[in-house]
Design a protein that fits this description.
This protein is an alpha/beta fold. It has three domains: about 160 residues, Rossmann fold (3-Layer(aba) Sandwich); about 180 residues, Rossmann fold (3-Layer(aba) Sandwich); about 80 residues, K homology (KH) domain (GMP Synthetase, Chain A, domain 3), CATH 3.30.300.20. The chain has a six-stranded mixed sheet with strand order 2-3-1-4-5-6, sandwiched between helices. It has a six-stranded mixed sheet with strand order 8-9-7-10-11-12, with helices on both faces. Strands 15-16-17 form a three-stranded mixed sheet. A hairpin with a 2-residue loop joins β2 and β3. The chain is elongated.
Length: about 425
């Protein structure tokens, strides 16, 4: 990333996600008054006046966590510290300075990075006798702020902009292919991305639903960069788990801002209803798709299992039967890099443009097999077809009565387009328009 990077560090529940949301100008992180809700790092771009930078929201951590998952969260925070140009050590004015804060501060000072010591949850000018205690942290200047109300936020941002190095130029994230890794919980999404990266970038545990935010990470393959979005596992809505509901919404948003979705399925369990739901969501969003049969190492008879799976795929996910499919194992690193040429292939299909003369030829050849019903007693005539959009490809059928073109007729034209031009791995949209 060419922009400088700011990491927000602190123990759990001091308001890191709230500050992150205010800095990036939107509700990107899950905010709930429960310790440990933010587990992975979450990247987003921010701007203050003319300065552009990346903000990283990290999971809260104690210097010596006892639980395994908090140990992994600590590891992710340390990764963020290594990457950061500036660190905001966030403290809690209501709880005061705790030994854990002092231990974190000592670790940050030893990193040699620029650190801002910021006391959150200050809703009015603090009493000096209460605020003075935070100077014991030994970091020099201490800034008060209220991430929830915005008190002293402008002063904080001016200080951030002052300490950051100049940006190396416009960011390249918007020009990179955006790939959303989606699937139902516990199919191995984070493990798959970690394997691609060759390092432990995301929290990976055997607990279903560990990833609850959508996490962006840049991955390079032979000099080409991709922005991977690791999404929360998509599951059915539940009134009992509001955090999980919001995670599902964020997964939907991740699909919406992607170009291609890598849909992971558990090869050892076959296609279940939630797999169909995920694929249907990607298709309805008009995004490209690459299917991955993950955990292929758990399949006992691969050749027979593949035949059975393909038959099941054609029956249950027929609307994406043109999409590429890969068998892989994220855990054992089997065939995972083959995903990149498949992604590039789908991207090329989505950007394909069909010349008008070839579409005229296609319509002429289709005339013999085209049988349209009468509409209000009159025959519907199709006069032409033209491509009016791409990513995904969109075609307009110019006809005498648009309302008379049935879904079956539109499917007929889609089949003709795919037979001749493929459009593998991407939905094709066809709209009926009246000829002027």
């Amino acid at each position: 990333m060419s922009e400088p990077l700011v990491a927000i560090i602190g123990r759990p529940n001091v308001g890191k996600s709230t500050l992150f949301n205010r800095m990036v100008g939107g509700r990107r992180a899950i905010v709930e008054a429960v310790e440990g809700v933010t587990r992975d790092r979450n990247y987003a771009q921010a701007r203050w006046e003319a300065k552009r930078f990346i903000v990283v929201d990290t999971g809260g951590f104690y210097p010596e966590p006892a639980e395994e998952i908090f140990s992994e969260v600590k590891e992710q925070a340390l990764f963020a510290v290594d990457e950061a140009d500036l660190i905001i050590h966030l403290l809690d004015a209501r709880q005061g300075l705790l030994p854990a804060d002092e231990a974190i501060a000592a670790m940050l000072r030893s990193s040699g990075k620029k650190v801002l010591w910021v006391v959150n949850k200050v809703d009015a000018p603090p009493r000096e006798d209460l605020f003075y205690d935070f100077y014991r942290i030994g970091g020099g200047e201490v800034l008060p702020v209220s991430a929830a109300t915005g008190y002293m936020f402008e002063e904080l941002m001016e200080k951030v902009a002052e300490l950051l190095p100049e940006s190396a130029g416009p960011g390249t994230a918007d020009r990179m292919p955006k790939v959303a890794v989606v699937g139902r919980p516990n199919v191995g999404k984070s493990t798959f991305i970690n394997s691609l990266l060759g390092k432990k970038r995301l929290v990976v545990t055997p607990v279903a639903g560990t990833t609850r935010d959508s996490i962006d990470v840049v991955c390079s393959y032979y000099g080409r960069r991709y922005l991977f979005i690791d999404t929360a596992g998509i599951r059915r809505k539940s009134k009992n788990y509001p955090v999980e509901q919001f995670s599902m919404v964020m997964a939907y948003r991740s699909i919406e801002r992607s170009d291609v979705a890598v849909i992971l399925m558990d090869a050892s369990k076959g296609i279940v209803s939630d797999d169909q739901k995920v694929a249907g969501l990607v298709h309805a969003s008009g995004k490209g798709a690459v299917f991955v049969l993950n955990k292929w190492d758990l399949v006992s008879n691969p050749e027979e299992a593949y035949k059975d799976f393909m038959a099941e795929f054609a029956r249950k996910i027929w609307f994406f039967n043109h999409a590429p499919l890969l068998t892989a194992s994220g855990l054992e690193l089997k065939r995972i890099t083959k995903i990149f040429p498949l992604i590039d292939g789908v991207l090329a299909e989505r950007a394909k443009t069909v010349p008008p003369e070839e579409l005229d030829e296609l319509l002429e050849q289709a005339g013999a097999g085209l049988r349209l019903p009468l509409y209000r007693g009159r025959k519907v005539r199709v006069y032409g077809i033209r491509q009016i959009g791409k990513e995904p490809p969109v075609f307009a059928l110019y006809c005498s009565e648009p309302a008379g073109l049935t879904a079956q007729a539109l499917k007929f034209f889609e089949r003709l387009l795919r037979e001749r031009f493929r459009f593998a791995g991407t939905p094709v949209k066809i709209v009926a328009k009246r000829k002027r």
